[in-house]
Amino acid sequence: xxxxxxYMAACQGGRKSMSTELLFVYGTLRRSxxxxxxxxxxxxxLLAHHARFIDDGECAGRLFNLGSYPGLVPALSPxxxxxxxxxxxxxxxxxxxxxxxxxxxxxxxxxxxEYLRVRMTVRGARLGLVxxxxxxxxxxxxxxERIHSGDFCQANVPG
Length: 159
Description:
8 strands, three-stranded antiparallel sheet, five-stranded mixed beta barrel, 159 residues, Hypothetical upf0131 protein ytfp
């Protein structure tokens, strides 16, 4: 995976998208996620530079710990929720292409993708129900530990 500065350079220039795209993040891209307890993930810097945090939120799903990152899979019941953050994207097509690469989503080959980028309804704490892009895990988490709280950042607090 290229260093985030390479991604940043790829987003420079280009016209801003006129449409408003929202992205819901629930793992390493969250502003509250910390590496080694104190530093935000380098890819969050890319997101923060090219998107604007607009609300905390949650969506239907079950969350699994895949090691150093989580995976969201479809909910089996309405009370299964995943917590995260909503961002309004600038230069959405360019930024989404870079995030697709980071998330190992291959639009032309979904079966080979670790994640899929799908539109889901997200409930923002202040915004209410909104459509947003969400990266969902494209494998069966058969042996992975479930994060019952639905909050990857809370599950990864040391202590």
